[in-house]
UniProtKB/TrEMBL annotation, chains A, B:
It comes from the Bacteria. Gene3D superfamilies: 3.30.465.10, 3.30.70.2740, Vanillyl-alcohol Oxidase, Chain A, domain 4. It comes from Pseudonocardia acidicola. The keyword Flavoprotein applies. This is FAD-binding protein. Coiled coil: none annotated. Keywords: FAD, Flavoprotein, Oxidoreductase. Residues 51-229 form the FAD-binding PCMH-type domain. Its cofactor is FAD. InterPro entries: FAD-bd_oxidored_4_C, FAD-bd_PCMH, FAD-bd_PCMH-like_sf, FAD-bd_PCMH_sub2, FAD-linked_Oxase-like_C, FAD-linked_OxidoTrans_Type4, Oxid_FAD_bind_N, Vanillyl_alc_oxidase_C-sub2.
């Protein structure tokens, strides 16, 4: 939603602003009657269908000690606190409370170390994926999480357990984070894990904080696993007559041992929209295009050029034997533009008027059944859904076109229920945030919810961290 | 310790035995005055340096509903409960309380499903690694965690976050578990995750239960990730003049993109002990053997035979350029026997009189420094340490030879402190259990310990699950 919907933040107690200024310096605090325009910059993330909400104040710490002091101050005054990276989240977890603080990590944006012996990076939460990619490339290493928005911050990635296209090979954020430094709502600083590939020394606090959407602790440093960067890449696009055929092909491609880097499906409508938006001609003849319901996009990489060529050959034959109309090896520039267009699918959906974007995750073999049920549900409501997704992971991204909020609520609830009945969950990588909280709390087993509430209470008995996100 | 040290379990209230019998059938309950011999089978795991302790009673449930009923009963009577798989743990986490119950999962030993579409196995906790390996092999798939004891149960593996030699390629248990069914100390059944490669839908209860050593919930079902089984394997053994040289070689081998399946170091003494114990002649000439302080054991595998041969060639050249005296490609039978001997290193250490075995984990580049400090610490106490370890993971397995318990306590405490000062933790894969609890609670930051205690309380306010393990 645009700034037109911004509600003014509550009037903030001037002594709060003074106390914050004493911690971080007055130039790093925004608040008060004259700051409305600046505060509105911190009023939203990229979530659709939810009103922006400016906070009472924004504070930009420069160090862990400052974050700790801010949280002690907030705890003492029972002020709600919402952490913010670069604001690219899709579920509203960075939308603050009108009476609360935004702790923006924009100044804590340093890569503290690229450790080439242990193959880890140590980063502050405000570091972006693009920044980390550039720094690791210089060492022939890479951080493999590509959630489709390279302006996203690592702090935000940790908070939502971000995934993306390469998760089929490398796993999601959860698999990359070896250690954290985080500040508890009491102001205490906790260090978990380390430059360690493994541990069995008490409860895994690292894993518990990952994906907790700013409700348990504020991450001030993350130790991330790096991998050798493979120099050779190839991209293959295979048109199929239906999503069932795509889904049936996926386990066979994985089992073949080719080890794809990316394994995405894109439905025909989404392909048309994203190629049109990017003015991209893939050179697929009209006849094939007309009989295609879904595309499989496969990327391979290898340290050895010859092996990549062999694998591309094998993959192509395999795809055709699995029912693909053809297997197009895309030239480098077209491949890059298509992957880029796929990454921007969210923006295309937004541009053509989608009211909501969801990312239900199901067992990957259940993907066609889920898509069938999703189409049926949408049709029954006179609505429309289309999408693409991480076929190797069963993570289905659907754009939902339905302007009536009441109808949309019922439609989304039925979509989530359909995914859960197939053994899935509401979100694979976007998180619950504010946009899906109602569905999450209505549809999740009360035993799980109660346990999560008790865990929340164990970290944050006063409930100051991101109230209204994930749980009530 | 042997059965000579067994203390008798407390006399058990006969109404408890009757109530348990009503749940699982009398033939699946052991307890009472005449059962001492049977109870002593459940009095220990494989931990050294800790007295066996028979429980008051043993109950062998056949289903999740029975586990739930047992926990309701235990909660009502405030009976301590210790879960037991096959009793192969090394830290005493399966040693019960004299006034408590052992819940043995020996009857819940079925593989419920091998799902070849989603590449997952669904298993009960009593299933062993050997059983799962056989079942997955039939489908060309494999479960990659090999902690060196194929008789270990999956329930136990989940409880300690088991690792093993292949973790350098595939990660540890934590990376394989996609979902759990578990029973809370209230008897409530919680289902977490699913056949899902990823999720961002609330706190990750799956990850929190993994590695919690039976103190948070009893796992009754696990959904495990499977991988294509590569048909071609090769094993290369490289002698080095020092551990420093081994440790320096490790990141370079990882960065080369060869992607080793196994990357182990074995010190000269341990190599002599395990090859002698297994009557294994590796054909390494005496001159090389005498100048060798440490061996690097590398296993490669591939779906394509030619690629494996090329990689072995490249690896051999690489190892020699990194300072190895030579690179021996071991013939299949010798390779299998050496890996087997390495897996049995614990038994060899026990046989030659080690009083304790530890598995400190450090950043892998800190391994030589840790080993130097460990030798110094041992020397200062007039003691002796030797070992081997997962070089790719920085997980150092040391056998400790020191008969005086007071000296051993100081020595172990200094070893753990040395590891922690280098950024490590007390245990990489064995767990804290009972044997390392004192060190863990003395050396861990109180902020972390308090948080863990609050999490324990959130799951188990009455404290009936494995009291005395991990935390007090």
């Amino acid at each position: 939603m645009g700034s037109a919907a911004d509600a003014a933040g509550s009037a903030v107690d001037p002594t709060v602003l003074e106390a914050l200024a004493a911690v971080v310096g007055a130039e790093h605090v925004t608040g008060g009657a004259t700051a409305a325009a600046e505060l509105s910059d911190y009023a939203h993330d990229e979530a659709l269908s939810i009103a922006a909400q400016p906070p009472a104040a924004v504070v930009r710490p420069g160090s862990t000690a400052e974050v700790s002091a801010i949280l002690r101050l907030a705890a003492g005054r029972r002020l709600p606190v919402t952490a913010r990276g670069t604001g690219t989240g899709l579920s509203g977890a960075a939308i603050p409370r009108p009476d609360g603080l935004v702790v923006s990590f924009e100044r804590m944006n340093r890569i503290l170390e690229i450790d080439t012996e242990n193959h880890v990076a140590v980063v502050q939460p405000g570091v972006t994926l693009a920044q980390l990619d550039e720094a690791t490339a210089a060492h022939g290493l890479s951080y493999p999480v590509y959630p489709g928005e390279n302006g996203a911050s690592l702090g935000g990635n940790v908070a939502t357990n971000a995934g993306g296209m390469r998760a089929v090979r490398y796993g999601v954020t959860r698999q990359q984070v070896q250690g954290l430094e985080a500040v508890l709502p009491t102001g205490e600083v906790v260090r978990t894990g380390g430059k360690l590939a493994k541990a069995s020394t008490g409860y895994d606090l690292t894993q518990l904080i990952i994906g907790s959407e700013g409700t348990l602790a504020l991450v001030t440093e993350a130790t991330l696993r790096l991998y050798p960067r493979h120099p050779h890449q190839a991209t293959v696009l295979a048109p199929f007559t239906g999503v069932d055929e795509v889904a049936a092909a996926v386990p066979k491609i994985v089992a073949s041992g080719i080890g794809p880097l990316v394994l995405e499906y894109i439905d025909a409508l989404t392909m048309a929209a994203i190629t049109q938006a990017q003015e991209l001609d893939l050179g697929i003849c009209e006849q094939v295009r007309e009989s295609t319901q879904a595309y499989l996009l496969v990327m391979l990489d290898n340290a050895v050029a010859d092996r990549l060529d062999e694998d591309v050959q094998r993959l192509g034959e395999h795809l055709v034997s699995l029912g693909a109309a053809d297997a197009y090896v895309l030239p480098g520039p077209a491949a890059r533009r298509l992957v880029d267009a796929r990454e921007k699918a969210f923006w295309t959906a937004k541009a053509i008027g989608a009211q909501e974007v969801v990312d239900v995750v199901v067992p990957r073999a259940a993907m066609p059944e889920f898509l069938r049920r999703a189409r049926d549900i949408a049709e029954r409501h006179g609505s429309f859904v289309a999408g693409c997704g991480h076929a190797g992971d069963g993570n289905v991204h659907l754009s939902v076109f339905e302007t009536d909020p009441q109808v949309r609520y019922r439609l989304l609830r039925e979509l989530f229920e359909a995914g859960m009945k197939l053994g899935g969950l509401i979100s694979g990588e976007h998180g619950v945030g504010r946009t899906k909280k109602r569905y999450f709390t209505e549809l999740t087993d009360p035993v799980n919810l109660d346990l999560m509430r008790r865990i929340k209470h164990a970290f944050d008995p006063a409930g100051i961290l991101n109230p209204g996100v994930l749980l009530d």
